[in-house]
Design a protein that fits this description.
443 residues, Naphthalene 1,2-dioxygenase Alpha Subunit, Chain A, domain 1, 7-stranded antiparallel beta sheet, globular
Length: 443
């Protein structure tokens, strides 16, 4: 079946802008294409290039932003590229004409970009910039400060495919069970009377009414959001997710959590604290079984359709069914990977739990707030250890007269500091790396 939906001629948010480092290039993969994000010194906005130097195909993400020219320099042979991808310098060139006469041939491949709603967006086809300029971004109406909304952003790479991610986010009925004790309660699981309001090539919309009125919107290929209204005073919370296809068996979620009340909490609660206490924990709760579910479905689809592999008898399954029908009708049930191995074989189940739930590789290294917090935690640990050694040593050498009066406070504060050190080292720091999630332990 020929795909009617063009995944490449669409906008995708690669990352929250606040998480990008303007001092160095950042690699990212989208639809099997290796990209590099970087910020020219002469520009206020980030650029996205194909992550390969036209000289010898070295990854530009291993390069640097030159401190003098502000251009992107390939670290292999020093070729430089300006914000438009034009090659401006070849250190090995015997004559300047080699550069000036071959500018078009020596260009780095540039992708159209925009910055909006605190996110960096890329158009996944570098050869249709005119269409990109005419195509609106899939922005959420909930990311609107003028309407009283506040929000925080989150990004994480996931060990399962794009369609598994979309299917999971589009399924509200799993929350009481998969996220018991975090965002739900398994004892409160109940029927969800989900109704499909609209379904076509460019939009799927569903609603359900319960204690809250909820609207779910899927705008292919990536925006999937919840708008949840409660009370009679217009209070609303939202979950705005962008589901990015990275490569076979991998995806990225860029999420924004919105509300139009209690705005000051966004300034009081550190962003990194929300990430380690809740955001990562929610995704951990899904990760193991989605990683395995995806591979079992692939195995079954060798001989049967998802329609028989899955058993979907309830109204709560309606949005999952609608998405699977959309994916089959408009994309032939598979993604058009470029520059990546075709997904013809079932992905292996050969990863360990620490690999599947690797918070550092999947989130911390991408998040400026968590990176900064982790560095601060390690500095505090070092400071507390130094204080402990100095305090105990000082108390030990004090004269007998002063040992009780001054030495005892030194020892007590040193012990308190040691307790804080132990909490930072063994309780808080691991949350940035790996926390095993065992559902059977969630009482």
């Amino acid at each position: 079946m020929v795909s009617e939906f063009n995944f490449f001629k669409n906008w995708y948010p690669l990352s929250p802008v606040e998480d990008l480092n303007p001092q160095q290039p950042t690699p990212v993969t989208l639809l099997g294409i290796n990209l590099v994000i970087w910020k020219p010194k002469s520009s206020q906005t980030y650029q996205v290039f194909l992550d390969e130097c036209p000289h010898r195909l070295a990854p530009l993400s291993e390069g640097r932003v030159d401190e003098n020219t502000g251009n992107l320099m390939c670290s292999y042979h020093g070729w430089e590229f300006d914000q438009n991808g034009i090659c401006t310098s070849i250190p090995q060139a015997e004559k300047p004409e080699i550069v000036s006469k071959n500018k078009e041939n020596f260009c780095a491949t540039q992708f159209p970009t925009q910055e909006a709603n605190d996110l960096l967006w890329v158009w996944a086809d570098p050869n249709s910039s005119e269409q990109a300029a005419k195509t609106p971004l899939p922005l959420s109406p909930q990311i609107d400060a003028s309407q009283g909304f506040v929000w925080s952003s989150f990004v994480r790479d996931l060990e399962y495919d794009w369609q598994t991610l979309v299917e999971n986010v589009a399924d509200p009925s799993h929350v009481p069970f998969a996220h018991h004790g975090v965002q739900g309660n398994r004892k409160k699981g109940s029927p969800i009377h989900l109704k499909i309001i609209e379904s076509n090539l460019n939009l799927i919309e569903a609603k359900y009414q319960g204690f809250f009125n909820t609207k779910i919107t899927f705008e292919p290929p990536c925006r999937l959001e919840y708008a949840i209204e409660f009370g009679s005073d217009g209070k609303q919370v939202g979950l705005v997710t962008y589901c990015l296809p990275v490569s076979p068996g991998k995806s990225r979620i860029v999420a924004q959590f919105t509300r139009n009340f209690s705005q000051r909490l966004n300034k009081i609660i550190p962003r990194w604290w929300e990430h380690v206490k809740t955001r990562n924990l929610v995704l951990d709760g899904d990760m193991i079984f989605l990683h395995q579910q995806e591979r079992l479905l692939q195995q079954k689809q060798k001989t049967e359709s998802w329609k028989t592999a899955y058993k979907l008898p309830t109204e709560a399954d309606r949005l999952v069914i609608e998405f699977r029908k959309w994916f089959e009708q408009y994309s032939g049930g598979k993604l058009p990977w470029k520059l990546a191995t075709s997904q013809t074989e079932v992905l292996p189940l050969n990863k360990t739990r620490p690999e599947i739930l690797d918070r550092y590789q999947q989130h911390t290294q991408h998040c400026s707030s968590c990176r900064g917090a982790l560095k601060a935690i390690k500095r505090w640990q070092m400071g507390l250890l130094i204080y402990f050694i100095i305090a105990i040593s000082t108390a030990a050498i004090l004269p007998d007269f002063w040992r009780l009066r001054a030495g005892l406070p030194f020892v007590l504060t040193a012990l308190v500091g040691l307790g804080i050190y132990a909490w930072l080292k063994y309780r808080l720091e691991p949350k940035f790396y790996f926390v095993d999630y065992v559902h059977a332990d969630k009482k």
